[in-house]
Amino acid sequence: GENVEQHPSTLSVQEGDSAVIKCTYSDSASNYFPWYKQELGKGPQLIIDIRSNVGEKKDQRIAVTLNKTAKHFSLHITETQPEDSAVYFCAAIVTDSWGKLQFGAGTQVVVTP
Amino acid sequence: SAVISQKPSRDICQRGTSLTIQCQVDSQVTMMFWYRQQPGQSLTLIATANQGSEATYESGFVIDKFPISRPNLTFSTLTVSNMSPEDSSIYLCSVGDGRYEQYFGPGTRLTVT
Question: Quick one: which of B53, B73, B57, B50 has its CA closest to B2?
Answer without folding.
Answer: B73
